[in-house]
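Severity: low
Component: inverse-folding endpoint
Summary: output formatting inconsistent between runs
Steps to reproduce: submit the following structure tokens with default settings.
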């Protein structure tokens, strides 16, 4: 399936290719829980920025591996480069234009990230 999405103001628009059944993580770490981010991690080849590159700003912290990308206009983070999968893209399911029909939300203990990060490593690999 090809799904489209955007930030709140639509200055940033993208497409992501997803399988028919999607499992996403609801992370309890400090940044994800405050932002309400639901994680759909895909290989880079399955993500396409349609427009808005000039509206993206980036925030990094801790190790600097994760590149948290935000819209300069509305402040929404529709996708980013995750620390667990720096070779992939992590899309916020809540920023998709339409709900995914077969969505399973699973908890992820990001507060204890170091102990659980390996559970996500496979997400950016081609199936």
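Observed output (run 2 of 3):
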């Amino acid at each position: 399936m090809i799904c489209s999405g955007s930030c709140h103001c639509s200055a940033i628009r993208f497409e992501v290719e997803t399988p028919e059944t999607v499992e996403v993580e609801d992370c309890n770490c400090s940044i994800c829980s405050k932002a309400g981010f639901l994680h759909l991690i895909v290989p880079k080849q399955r993500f396409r920025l349609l427009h808005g590159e000039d509206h993206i700003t980036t925030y990094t912290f801790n190790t600097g591996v994760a590149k948290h990308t935000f819209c300069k206009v509305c402040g929404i983070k529709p996708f980013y480069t995750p620390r667990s999968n720096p070779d992939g893209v992590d899309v916020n399911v809540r920023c998709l234009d339409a709900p995914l029909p077969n969505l399973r939300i699973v908890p992820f203990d990001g507060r204890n990230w170091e102990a659980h990060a390996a559970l996500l490593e496979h997400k950016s690999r081609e199936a």
